[in-house]
Design a protein that fits this description.
The chain has twelve helices and eleven strands. The chain has helices at 8-22, 46-57, 71-81, 97-106, 122-131, 145-154, 162-168, 179-186, 191-201, 206-213, 217-231, 236-245; strands at 4-5, 37-42, 62-68, 85-88, 91-92, 95-96, 113-117, 135-138, 159-160, 176-177, 249-250.
Length: 251
């Protein structure tokens, strides 16, 4: 079985970002059936927290329920407020944002964690995803990319900044599917279900996967439900962690 190149992931993510910026930001909260999306901001720099709060509060149906400046405080606030989404820095006093993310996701206090960081290394991205993060945004990028990540994650996908994808998707260093792992997963999943897994790891939501595969959104949702049942996963973030742990995404 030949290796499946992951190079198109960067183009897919870039296209998704452009589409996200073209949409009305006020529709983000509607993904929660009209309820407000409750957001926790974690960063040790007050200016960054203030900027993110100002950006998010311009978006209808999004409510910032708390701010934390240390890893322990982030964990404590996540436990008490149970936010729908957490924007998490990596370098924090009192511990790592990646460690805090792992604890928050493991305890089911929030499954939608997006890292917002200055760290642009491949290893940091992989560590964050292993910990359960579903998004990765660079502070050096456009500030409204935070909204792109929010929309992608709200749609059931994962999001890695196109800036970082462009830096890592070089001809000599592609992300690709390990054929041996693909064979192992094929023992449990159908070919179409495996394609859905690949789409999820690429950061695509169900609608984007449906367009990619040329099938209906409902069909993708059915494959996704069956795939998660076979893998014993309760959440999309668990599928991503399983794929990385088993080597579906390799350097």
């Amino acid at each position: 079985m030949s290796e499946i190149s992951r190079g198109p992931a960067a183009r897919d993510l870039a296209a998704a970002a452009r589409k996200a910026r073209a949409r009305k930001r006020k529709t983000i909260g509607q993904k929660r059936e009209g309820n407000q999306m409750r957001v926790l901001i974690v960063d040790d720099h007050a200016v960054m927290r203030s900027g993110m709060r100002m950006l998010l509060e311009k978006t209808e149906d999004v409510k910032v329920v708390g701010e934390a400046c240390t890893a322990p405080e982030a964990v404590k606030l996540a436990e008490s407020s149970r936010p729908d989404m957490v924007f998490m820095d990596i370098e924090l006093p009192g511990g790592s944002g990646i460690g805090a993310t792992e604890e928050i996701v493991r305890n089911h206090w929030c499954e939608n964690v997006v890292m917002v960081t200055a760290h642009d290394s491949r290893s940091c991205v992989e560590s964050a995803l292993r910990a359960g993060a579903r998004g990765y945004v660079l502070k050096t990028g456009a500030i409204d990319e935070i909204l792109d990540a929010m929309e992608q994650v709200c749609g059931g996908g994962t999001y890695v900044t196109p800036l970082l994808q462009d830096a890592t998707q070089t001809p000599g260093n592609p992300l690709k599917v390990d054929p041996l792992v693909e064979a192992r997963m094929s023992e449990r999943l159908s070919a179409r279900e495996l394609e859905v897994v690949v789409g999820i790891v690429d950061g695509l939501g169900s609608k984007e996967i449906a367009l990619e595969l040329g099938v209906s959104h409902r069909t993708v949702e059915t494959h996704r439900t069956n795939m998660m049942r076979k893998l014993g996963a309760r959440k999309v973030s668990e599928v991503v962690r399983l794929a990385i742990r088993e080597g579906l995404v390799v350097a």
